[in-house]
Amino acid sequence: MQVGRVVKKQKERGGRSTDEPAWVRYLLVTVALGFLALFLLLPLAAVFAQALEKGWQAYFEALKEPDTLSAIRLTLITAAFCVPLNLFFGIVASWAIAKFNFRGKSFLITLIDLPFSVSPVVSGLIYVLIFGLQGWLGPWLQDHNIKIIFAVPGIILATVFVTFPFVARELIPLMEAQGREEEEAALTLGASGLQTFFRVTFPNIRWGILYGVILCNARAMGEFGAVSVVSGHVRGSTNTIPLQVEILYNEYSYAAAFAVASLLALLALVTLAVKTAAEWKMQQTVTVSEQER
């Protein structure tokens, strides 16, 4: 009800949330737009301009190069493993944190945030320390002919580590804002745990899930630091798209490097568009939920 009164009051004031003079608002908006144009739009435009510098034929030829196709394929495989794993973990962790009180809850939240505070390079080195040839499990893995570091499993593990907070961090505040009353009512009426989740909880968090999945997928496909440490940079085998861009650029194949980089730029634009739509729908869900209380 309080949120509803605030929204109504803002509408009465023409949608303005403050009483600052018009010139202050316009100045802030201009500065924000100028900053975005300088540090976001200009670099994106430069990427596409460089990628198409030698024409569309050269652009598509660069994308069809075997090593580039291998990098694209490995990037998609990595995302295909990381996103479902992080989706499952994010839902389970956010459900436990938002719906239950237990000892160690704050510690669990801190652990979820850990990849945000640890450098991706350090994340990669952790897996080298554990699974590398001279690592803790290296001799055992070698005896059983299992290769993780400098192979696809290592890339997937490192990417899962750096991306697992994205879904959970989107769902935790959303679930906490919605409370537990609806789930408790469903359980009281005889619904099972799964029925409660899919018929009561899921409709309220579906846009948050989509939002988290989008961010997780974008980071998984664009991760460089951790993947660079564990990949070994084997051409046509363990290079992802960001690593392929680095190799092409270091070999002075600028047009090809920017052509491959444009794929990541396109992914960023699509992510931005879908993220905006999901964020808007998620905000609507939270507002309606709060107004109904």
From TrEMBL:
Protein topology in the membrane: Multi-pass membrane protein
Superkingdom, natural source: Bacteria
Keywords from the named record: Cell inner membrane, Cell membrane, Membrane, Sulfate transport, Transmembrane, Transmembrane helix, Transport
One function term, GO molecular function aspect: ABC-type sulfate transporter activity
Subcellular location: Cell inner membrane
Pfam families cross-referenced by the UniProt entry: BPD_transp_1
Residues annotated as transmembrane: 26-51, 71-95, 107-136, 148-168, 209-232, 252-274
GO CC aspect terms: plasma membrane
InterPro entries in the cross-refs: CysW_permease, MetI-like, MetI-like_sf, Sulph_transpt2
Keyword Cell inner membrane part of the UniProt annotation: yes
Domain ABC transmembrane type-1 positions: 72-275
Assembly behavior: The complex is composed of two ATP-binding proteins (CysA), two transmembrane proteins (CysT and CysW) and a solute-binding protein (CysP).
Protein purpose: Part of the ABC transporter complex CysAWTP (TC 3.A.1.6.1) involved in sulfate/thiosulfate import. Probably responsible for the translocation of the substrate across the membrane.
The protein, known as: Sulfate transport system permease protein CysW
